[in-house]
Amino acid sequence: MPVESAADRAVFVNGADFGETILWTVGAADPVAISVLGQAGSLMIDTQDGPSIQGQEATVTMQEADLPLNANQGDEVLFRAKHYLVKSIEPDGTGMANVRLEEEDI
C-alpha cells in the first residue's frame, strides 16, 4: 500500500513512535518546533597539511509541508541539544524531505 496522504506520512515522524522534535530558526524569526525522524553521527575531515578534524553531522527526515516558510541553507536547527546549520534540503518526491545538518561552531 503506497503512502498517499499527509496523515500516512505523519506516522513516520510521530513523537509517540519514532519521531523527535527539532527547533528550526529562519533568520531572525522565532524558532518553529517540527516533528522529525533523525539520526546523528561523527564526521572525520582529512586536511591536506594538518591533523584530521572531527565534527558532528545529522540528517532529519520530515514532512515537506512542515518546512518553515523560506527555509534555506544556513538556517539554524537545535537537534538533540546541539546547534546545527542546514547544509541542504532534499525533497524526496513523496512529500517528505531529508535535511542534512552540520554542527554549528559556537
* The CATH architecture: Beta Barrel
Based on helices, strands and strand pairing, what is the structural class?
A: mainly beta
Q: Which strands sit side by side, in order, in the main sheet?
A: 1-2-3-6-5-4
Main pleated sheet: 6 strands, antiparallel, barrel
Shape: globular
Classify the oligomer: single chain
What is the CATH topology classification name? Thrombin, subunit H
Strand tally: 6
Number of helices: 1
Q: Radius of gyration from the CA trace?
A: 15 Å
Number of domains in the coordinates?
Answer: 1
Fraction of helical residues: under 10%
Strand content: over 45%
| CATH class (first level) name | Mainly Beta
Strand-and-helix sequence, N→C?
HEEEEEE
* Ends apart, CA distance between termini: 45 Å
Low-confidence stretches: none
State mean pLDDT (0 to 100 scale). 87
Explain what you see.
The protein has 1 helix and 6 strands; from the N terminus they run H-E-E-E-E-E-E. It is 8% helix and 50% strand. It has one helix at residues 6-13, and strands at residues 20-25, 32-45, 53-63, 76-79, 82-91, 96-103. The protein has a single domain (6-103), classed as Thrombin, subunit H, CATH 2.40.10. It has a 6-stranded antiparallel beta barrel with strand order 1-2-3-6-5-4.
